[in-house]
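Following up on my earlier thread - several people asked me to post the actual chain instead of describing it. Fair enough. Here it is, all 313 residues.
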Amino acid sequence: MGKNSSNDKGNKIKELILNQKGMALITTLIFVFVLVTLAVALLTMTNNDTKLSTLQRESNKAFYLADAGIEDTLWKLNTSTDNGGMGIDWLQSTPYPDPGTATEYYQVTIEDDGVDDDGDAKVKIISTGTVIGGQFSSGERKIEVIAEIDYITTGMYDFAILSDKIILFQGDPGPDVVGDVHSNDDILVSPADGEFVEDYPGLATCAGDTNELNPSGVDGKTIDIPFVDYPELLIRALADDDPPTDIHYHTEDVILGNGDTENWTGIHYIEGSLEAKNGSTINVTNGAIIATGDVDVKEGAIFNIDNDPVNYI
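Reply from S.P.:
Thanks for posting it. Predicted structure:
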């Protein structure tokens, strides 16, 4: 009986030892499983973050390509062809990816968008940036801009005469000037006590030291001369451009003799000087005269410009 009791105790001890080894194995396996699960989750999260970061970078690249298309188009519209641009009347879309590469580029479409409440013409510029075959995807970003066409004519008609140089009025009774006069230099009149000084109905100011037309009008104020894109006007004149304004090109000096009359419409670009002798008449309707040389309207000549302030730009 004693031997059997001893053997039973030994067996129980062995079972306990074997059971502890099994628990340790199970605990180890659970610990390893948890570690592997955490590692897989961490790798998955890292990979997803990398993908999201790359997708964001490619999306941003497409956006900035589209933005570059808008900026390039606005520059072309606001820059004359003589300076590398296309001019304000350029409304052509880019028919192919330009500029860029085969996988990263922008395309621009320009559409007429009617007029605003003030009657100014508008255009819609649509620029699409494209990234093809990115690391994880291809994508597009689009930007739309409504641009108003402004011919910057606000300051051009504030003065009947506006000059950076000396303005000299000669003759008695002198020229027929209706409107204000300003010189960024001096205003001189000969004779100083003639009918022109007495009858002049406008306001004469100057930034120089002498104003013989209005001695109290020496205000020292310098006024910017309105910008005129002469090279662009010349290109359009040579092309006999019609809209938005008739433009006519004169290849040499224009001289009007006594009694001669010219009735002009639109812009007349003179490659040379304009001289209107005593007794001659120039009537310009809805237009202007651009001359590369001198403009000399003699006393007794009539020089009249009649522009419709509502419909004429």
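Helices lie at 2-78, 195-199, 230-238. That should answer part of your original question.
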